[in-house]
Amino acid sequence: MKTIHCGAALLQEQRADARAGAFMRAMERYDDRTRAIRGCGPGRSETGMHLGTRRLGMLNVFVDKWYVNLPMKREDHAKLPGSLRDAENRIRAGVPRKALNMHLHIIPAVRLLKHIRHGYTAELEATERLLAPLDALNLKLAKKGQRTGSEISSAIRCLDDFRDSQLARKHSAVKRIAAKGRLEETLQLLQNTLGLDGNARAMEVSRACAQFSAFRARLGEWRDRDVAGIAVHNLKRECALRIERDRWVLAQLDRFATSLEKIYEYDLVDHHKRDALIELEALISRNAPKELVLMQLRAASRLFRVPERARMDVAEAGLLAAGRKVDYLIAHYGWLYRYAGNGQKEKALAKLDFISTFVNGNKPPFILRELSRDADAYLAPVLEKLEKAVGAYRLIYHAADVSAAFAAAKAAFAAARDELKKIVAPDKS
Question: Which H helix or E strand runs over 72?
Fold first, then answer.
């Protein structure tokens, strides 16, 4: 038994190394292909290192100040054939996908791409941990000699539990269709052996072990090939967008350091919008009567209409995040009214969150909060100074000497700006 465990551990280590190597080679092949395409641009990793990538437009990422249109692709299982073998052939050629447009603030957009990258790495490691006991089980079944009915029944229970706990709820076609299908064929072959004995049982067990190897390949190498190109593409997007995010934040800190009085004035106006949105979220979340929600929406709608003079002032000050969409709030507010009227709770809450981002997206507290969530390590000195600046900004409302409070906050924002400038536009003299 000790020999089997040692053999399984060695086999597991060899397979893990081979799989990691194959994954890296697949990523490198995709990277080589994309380098041959024109449109190179600068990028920055989460550690602050400069990396070559491509221009955002070439990566299908569209940015308007902080507003990001981030097209993604989701697997479209409806386009896969019904039979396992036909579905595998289609998966091998490339899993069909459908477009999904995401509209995000630039700071959460970078964080999302970062989490996707970390998710792929974690998936690689988690799959190896999950397969370790199954590899040992397969090696035990494949050893020479007769397998008893109790050994086979134990293996069936183990594989059955794995299918139900690890594969049944997976979205990936490679896992949910190809790997799960091969595992079910393995289980069926093992089930068949219980009615056999002697050489007939040994032959059927061998077939089951071969089918297990096919299952393992789909859960490992097939999934890696499917993910490798996506992982490289998203890494390029993440690094290119991080450059744009840091430039945008630097521009905001400069505005805070030079025009804080005007920003504070608009922040006070938006305070009423925030209160209205919080109240609406509470009503929708607790399933308040539709008539009450719609009444509150109508009452608050005037807050989200921008008067002509105010619109011009905002645009001149550079405070409108949506550039060409000067009536962005009331347009999205209309969709919120429609979702609430149709009883579409989840869509209404998502639209509320979207409108809230528009209201808060260029305010100092929002920028600090979002940058601090799973922060990039190289931003630590900036965040330290920005936290002090936002603290000083919050003191203005209760300050006895407002001019002195503004001066202190502006100086603190200038210190944060100068710290970030060392990263975004370092002095090369």
Answer: strand 67-75
